[in-house]
UniProtKB/TrEMBL annotation:
Name recorded for this polypeptide: Uncharacterized protein
Length: 151
């Protein structure tokens, strides 16, 4: 019971630590202000296994999708190829969205095409899923893509 209380406390602390920095996304200018937090959330998602702090991961992924949907500075697309790779698995979708976000925010100085954003996101997703420590396996279509494209 004591361990469960400690784990719950740590989980609550991690959620609150994101919560203190979260910027409400109401005005166009809020999206630019939120970029450092969005990068922090993406880094959290890709630097921890999918089983680590699940509620925090879900809250972070939701914030990223909200940011992606409203940012006036970037346009994101999910092509048929992307949908085939991620299928209907929620973890893949969250990571795929975070990966595309990481690509644009880490390359602000470049004018990336939608194809470059998608390819960068797919590569990041596949590299993450290829690491057994992240507790998520490559889908069959990801394995084919990895073999075909040398990711």
């Amino acid at each position: 019971m004591k361990k469960q209380l400690i784990l719950f406390g740590l989980l609550l602390y991690s959620i609150c630590s994101f919560g203190q920095d979260i910027i409400e996304l109401k005005e166009k200018s809020d999206y630019k202000k939120a970029e450092p937090m969005v990068i922090k959330i993406c880094s959290f998602l890709f630097n921890n296994p999918v089983t680590h702090e699940k509620e925090t991961r879900q809250a972070g992924a939701s914030y990223i999708v909200q940011w992606m949907s409203g940012t006036p500075d970037y346009t994101f697309t999910v092509t048929q190829e992307g949908m085939q790779l991620i299928g209907s698995k929620q973890e893949y979708m969250a990571l795929y969205m975070a990966a595309q976000t990481m690509v644009v925010l880490e390359n602000k100085d470049k004018k990336l095409t939608p194809e470059q954003i998608e390819k960068g996101g797919i590569d990041l997703l596949i590299n993450y899923c290829s690491n057994p420590a992240n507790n998520i396996k490559l889908s069959k279509s990801m394995k084919k893509y990895k073999k075909k494209n040398g990711v």
